Amino acid sequence: MRYAWFIFLPPIIIAAIVFAVWARYRKHSHERSLKNVAVIAHTHTIKMLPAYRRAVRRYRLLLIFTCVCFLISTFSFTIAAARPTSREEHNDENESRDVVLCLDVSGSMSSYQASLLELFMKTIDGLHGQRVGLTIFDGVPANLIPLSDDYDAVAEIIQDLIKNFSDYSVAVMGKSVSMIGDGVVGCINSFNLDSDDGRHKSLIIATDNYASSSETVDINQAARFAKRYNITFYGISINYSSTSQQERLFQNAVAITGGSFYNLRTLIFNGTEISSNIINKVLAQEAAKVAGNSEISYVDSPDIALIISAVSFIVMIALLWRLRL
Prior knowledge:
Elements: H1 9-29, H2 43-47, H3 50-81, E1 85-96, E2 98-104, H4 113-125, E3 131-137, E4 141-148, H5 151-163, H6 165-171, H7 180-188, E5 201-207, H8 219-227, E6 231-237, H9 245-256, E7 260-263, H10 264-284, E8 288-300, H11 303-323
Parallel strand pairs: 2-3, 2-5, 5-6, 6-7
Antiparallel strand pairs: 1-8, 3-4
């Protein structure tokens, strides 16, 4: 109750009224005399009649019921005025998946960055409710945004990447360029691989497949590493030759993880459809049930007290009319 001290008011008020009536009665009782009393003969005989006794008992019962109804109505109304509350706890459960955007930022990719990053933006817009991260790579990988549901931060980094692509490209150049296999492994490590939280993991990779001969692992080895952790690849190739060895390696890597492969030629003509396709496939994967923030609310619930007070008051009025008071 918000105002629990209200409950003590009725007993105090009733006690004060009873005391005042008793004090007044006692003060004036000695002033009474027979000259103020109408003397009626044979009243003792009348009081012995069964009908009189029944009438007196009925009157007393009605009077007692009236007092009880008054007390119930008063206390119920006081409880309602004290604003009784009920405690409600809400535990939201959300479905969540992990998605990492993995972008090759080597110099040969500069002509395609705007289209790819726009596609990434559309994909993020369709993945609200999921955790999203962003990792770029060239000679070395760099995790720009760890997995997070702060979509504004992800969008801000992508916009900055569009404007200052060369700055990011130089920062991850390393000793060699286009270490694609190593870069994809860096993207894989952006996931929390030690956690068994049941989140489905998706990696959206955009690269031109021009790999350096000095890379430590190739993209197929990276795919087998990803498969151990149930990570699905969604590959976007920036290689016009669908028959090239690099293209076939990329397609095979995506197939190893059970993902989907897209080519830039399709992206140029139907980027929105590719984005929608990726979103639908990611969301079709089983999601982990993640407990949201627990919220506790207190709701006023005076209904029962008000109903009891109203019913008691109506019964009391009816009894008073019956008693002719």
